[in-house]
Amino acid sequence: MLELCSNEFTIVLPMLSKIKNKAVFALSVIEQTQKGKIFVNRILDPSAALITSCGGFYCVVGNASYHTFNDAIANFLNDKENHIGFYALAMFTEEWERALQKYQLIHANKIKRTYFRLNDQKFTEMSIDISLKIDDGLHYEALNEHISNQYREDFYTYYKLVWDSNEHFNVRGIGHFITKDNQIISVCSSPYVGGGFAEIDIITVEEYTRKGLATKVAALFINDCRSKNLIPNWSCHSDNQASLSLASKLGFEPIAEHPMYWYNV
Predict the structure, then answer these.
(1) Which of the residues 56, 108, 196, 263 has an alpha carbon 20 to 30 A from that of 91?
(2) Which of 62, 83, 112 is the last residue in one of the domains?
């Protein structure tokens, strides 16, 4: 398994031609918007690749029949020093699923993930009924240096991994926040931006769920993407009923379901 230099990353793009929005994190790494590593079966005209992002999302693409390369992938996955205590390995073909199920991947459980595409017309129609008015006592903020610093430092430190600086997140990312008493209670933000897509990530503090806040920040996120010529992107665990329901409410339509190895220690 050979690691590419960053100036070689684009040679794996043909292997993602049919995947695109299912692996926004991989496109972000290839474009060097966010950090990551790419490993291939050979440097000259590679036909299989493992793409890893700094946030722990990985994928395998290309031809799954190179046994030596697959052995190296399994060894990489089973070495905890290669991870941040977490990884999510996406597989987009049955060939890759069959290839990797031959290995014992330590502490990794196979789950299913559902991928969506936004139906713009449906969102436009549905957004008419989505009130963006913020209730009394709550405050709305679009991404700015103060709120993003609070978000990365105090609310969700994962964003210190995926965005290497507060400035970088503000320049390239998207975020919409609702606060109460200067504390974040609901947010829709982009952990990854790549290939013209912005991945959606929504968190609402448990006390404030089922009040429509997630719908508000998600609608604001989608409108922001439109203004920046980005395509909002949604994916979630296939058993996450709340996420599935909200995706449908906002006009996202499922396009595929694929297995994923989920490692978290």
Answers:
(1) 196
(2) 112
